[in-house]
Automatic annotation (TrEMBL):
Ranges annotated as spanning the membrane: 28-46, 93-113, 119-140
UniProt source species: marine metagenome
Keywords: Membrane, Transmembrane, Transmembrane helix
Membrane topology listed for this record: Multi-pass membrane protein
Main location: membrane
Protein name: Yip1 domain-containing protein
Residue ranges occupied by any Yip1 domain in the UniProt entry: 7-152
């Protein structure tokens, strides 16, 4: 399995032919788990920068709202500060869970879209499990992107770095 993951970068044509012929949907869980794990690690490493970005956005939206009095602004900002910078509780757990679950949801929707286009418009006959399998392996460059982008974002303290392979 590790060789297949490496070969998706080094010899993608042969590897994806092999994946389509010899693998089943259960073997898609390894690349999916890898991407989910890297997303959680990235979120943990960048949690301070993410909290700072959220706090800046909250401050801008509340301070620029003319319908809120100054006393209400201070009260709202105080409660939001505690919420954004809390390190425990359900909100921090929810953050990591959503970071992990965003990738499978993204892959499922892309698989459904690919299956719709491939089967309906292009006349293919692939089932969801085969398309999902290929999509999981096709998303592996995102794992490489997370490995490259997270240290850059941490060092520069800038989350607005676009290093995706599509850029």
């Amino acid at each position: 399995m590790i060789a297949t993951i490496i070969n998706t970068f080094t010899a993608p044509g042969e590897t994806f032919d092999n994946i389509v012929k010899d693998y089943n949907w259960k073997q898609a869980m390894m690349p999916l788990a890898l991407i989910m794990g890297l997303a959680i690690i990235s979120g943990f490493v960048l949690s301070d920068q993410i909290a700072d970005l959220q706090w800046d956005q909250i401050q801008k939206s509340i301070n620029n709202n003319p319908n809120i009095s100054e006393e209400q602004k201070q009260e709202i900002l105080g409660s939001q500060y505690d919420r954004v910078y809390s390190r425990s509780g359900a909100s921090s757990i929810f953050t990591y869970v959503t970071m992990a679950l965003s990738w499978p949801i993204r892959i499922v929707f892309w698989s459904l879209f690919s299956m719709l286009v491939g089967n309906l418009f292009l006349g293919g006959g692939s089932g969801f499990s085969r398309v999902f399998l290929v999509a999981c392996f096709a998303y592996l460059p995102s794992a490489l992107e997370l490995i490259i982008k997270t240290p850059i974002q941490y060092i520069t303290e800038n989350l607005m770095i676009y290093t995706g392979f599509g850029v």
